[in-house]
């Protein structure tokens, strides 16, 4: 159970301002699945996210207006297990043109939970991921992927977590992703981590296969439910 004391009352809602700026409504992460937490979501307008064990009984969630959107698989990789695929044409760099990265981000994410949420227009889901990529650029937590001198993708991270991968459309389906990602992971490990973690939608078979090829193994999973009180502008 996670709760916060805000002023003179207890709340189970954690505000997510990075999503509010994209969707134009109040957005929250629900930090507990208990009765009081679910009842609190009934008292406010906005968009809510809750992550639960897949074995959890969903009936209370459904009764309070939540709906299933995704299952996130959680692969992890130990430093010694990483499989690296060398390619003399591929380079990982932090010296890149930000606009080239944002252009890739505009069309790289179609299998995420925000695109699967039938309440969220695709344009807003696209905006959400593009702004996330921009945030990672601004904080220095993104590698650009180049093939010769061509910017073809990106790898976003925070601490030991692999957050976002994007490869330009004309480079997909040709085996480049495992080269780009393995070299990025090797660079990521240089920060001193013994383990990298990531989170992949269960419907994103290409990404799951990619990480398995690189030496990641599945540790767990969570089901994600959303709820919308009100409407998007």
From TrEMBL:
One of its GO terms (molecular function) is acyltransferase activity. The keyword Cell inner membrane does not apply. It is an enzyme of class 2 (transferase). It holds the Pfam family Acetyltransf_1. It comes from the Bacteria. Keywords: Acyltransferase, Transferase. Gene3D superfamilies: 3.40.630.30. InterPro entries: Acyl_CoA_acyltransferase (IPR016181), GNAT_dom (IPR000182). The keyword Acyltransferase applies. Its EC number is 2.3.-.-. Residues 99-233 form the N-acetyltransferase domain. This is GNAT family N-acetyltransferase. It comes from Lentibacillus kimchii. The lineage of its organism: Bacteria, Bacillati, Bacillota, Bacilli, Bacillales.
């Amino acid at each position: 159970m996670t709760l916060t004391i805000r002023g003179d009352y207890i709340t189970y809602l954690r505000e997510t301002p990075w999503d509010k700026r994209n969707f134009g409504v109040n957005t929250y992460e629900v930090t507990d699945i208990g009765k009081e937490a679910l009842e609190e979501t009934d008292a406010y307008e906005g968009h809510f996210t809750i992550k639960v064990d897949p074995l959890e009984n969903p009936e209370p969630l459904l009764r309070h207006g939540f709906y299933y959107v995704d299952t996130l698989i959680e692969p992890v990789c130990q430093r010694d297990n990483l499989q690296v695929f060398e390619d003399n044409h591929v380079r990982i760099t932090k010296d890149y043109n930000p606009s080239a990265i944002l252009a890739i981000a505009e069309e790289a994410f179609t299998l995420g939970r925000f695109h699967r949420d039938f309440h969220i227009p695709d344009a807003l889901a696209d905006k959400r991921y593009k702004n996330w990529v921009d945030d990672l650029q601004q904080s220095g937590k993104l590698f650009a992927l180049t093939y010769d001198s061509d910017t073809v993708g990106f790898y976003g991270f925070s601490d030991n977590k692999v957050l976002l991968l994007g490869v330009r459309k004309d480079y997909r389906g040709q085996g480049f992703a495992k080269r780009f990602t393995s070299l990025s992971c090797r660079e990521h490990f240089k920060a001193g981590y013994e383990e990298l973690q990531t989170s992949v939608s269960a419907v994103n078979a290409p990404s799951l296969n990619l990480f398995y090829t690189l030496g990641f193994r599945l540790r767990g999973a969570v089901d994600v439910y959303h709820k919308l009180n009100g409407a998007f502008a």
